[in-house]
Amino acid sequence: MEELINNLKIQIIEALNLEGMTPDEIENDAPLFGEGLGLDSIDALELIVLLEKQYGIKLANPAEGKAIFKSVNVMAAYIAENRKK
Amino acid sequence: MQRTLVVLFRFMPVEVLYAFMGMVIPFYMIFNRQGYLSSYHWFRRRFGFGPIKSFFGVYRNHFVFGQVILDRFATYAGKKFRFEFDGKEKFDALAAGGPGFMMVSSHVGNYELAGYSLSTEGRKFNALVFAGETETVMKNRNIMFGSNCISMIPMSEDMSHIFALSCALSNGEIVSMPGDRIFGSQKSVRCSFMGKDADFPMGPFALAVQKNVSALAAFVMKTGSRSYRVVLREIGWGDAAGKAEKIQRMAEAYAAEMGTVMGAFPYQWFNYYDFWKEDEN
């Protein structure tokens, strides 16, 4: 799980172009949207595509989307359970 | 008021309400200063009209804006409009099969009527709308659109609309969203439009690029009291390679198509604010 979380942070930094940020600076439980990283709707789209491309996960239910992206920890747990690659 | 309009249109020709509306417009021009100025500058700066011609241009612009709003309610009441199409073969080819695709709309003409005039061949059509629409408008839209496989996705603070739009495209459905106004995410793309750089929302173009789907710019322009022209143009990213470059190229293609349409229909520009941010300083 540790490795998955670290890889995920690296992928988030790359996908969202968070220049100058290191994985250590993203707290595992900090909210990704609003406070925390302060991501917006276009960033949400980037994360959706990241899940599809990196882990083969297609979100079928729009209602669960926001909950999955609550924090890096929640995202990693969802990936571990649903990844196809 | 809106419900009354729907009832009135059941008994009255549209032209009667157009005439009534024409008498109200001068008051609107006097009291809605921002709307007046943005429209006046549109004619002065973008088309080089003189002050008098621009003044009457504002009146005509407001008149057509009133007409397209009344036409929506007339449609809810069952009135029919004639549509001629320009570029429909592109829409038909995309709607006939294959992956999902996008329709990028704008606040010009009467885009909502595209929903009544285009057949999606049974494919679901998802239109992103502002969450603040009134109950009457939403109810009538749902009645009108229900038979045409169209559903509304309200923009939401919790960003659930992004997940819904993405899922829809993944499921091979059609997604429609405006490409001229920045809302939600403040990320934008700067493009030349009508001779001067302006900011366009990144969202619709990022969605098309990230989901790797085709997109059409769609404009439904009023050509007579009971007729419209539906202009459909494919907007792509050509041979652009990176994500950012693709988004930029696509936004530029959209701005160029909208510029061409506005050159032909200058009185149907309904973005009543400082679109080019020329008066901010």
Record the SSE blueprint:
The complex is a heterodimer of chains A (85) and B (281).
Chain A: H1 2-15, H2 41-55, H3 62-68, H4 72-82
Helix pairs in contact in A: 1-4
Chain B: H1 2-11, H2 14-31, H3 33-47, H4 51-76, E1 82-86, H5 88-96, E2 101-105, H6 114-117, E3 125-129, H7 135-146, E4 150-154, H8 160-170, E5 174-178, E6 188-193, E7 196-201, H9 203-210, E8 214-224, E9 227-234, H10 243-264
Parallel strand pairs in B: 1-9, 2-5, 2-8, 3-4, 3-5
Antiparallel strand pairs in B: 6-7, 8-9
Helix pairs in contact in B: 1-4, 2-4, 3-4, 9-10
Overview of the molecule:
The complex is a heterodimer of chains A (85) and B (281). With 85 residues, chain A is mainly alpha-helical. Chain A is 55% helix and 0% strand. In chain A, helix 1 (2-15) crosses helix 4 (72-82). Chain A is globular. Helices cover 48% and strands 20% of the residues of chain B. Chain B is built from 10 helices and 9 strands. Chain B has a 7-stranded mixed β-sheet with strand order 1-9-8-2-5-3-4, with helices on both faces. A two-stranded antiparallel ribbon of chain B has the order 6-7. Chain B is globular, with a radius of gyration of 19 Å. The relative contact order of chain B is 0.16. The model of chain B has no long low-confidence stretch (mean pLDDT 89). Classes of the chains: A mainly alpha (85), B alpha/beta (281). The interface between A and B is medium-sized, with 20 and 20 residues.
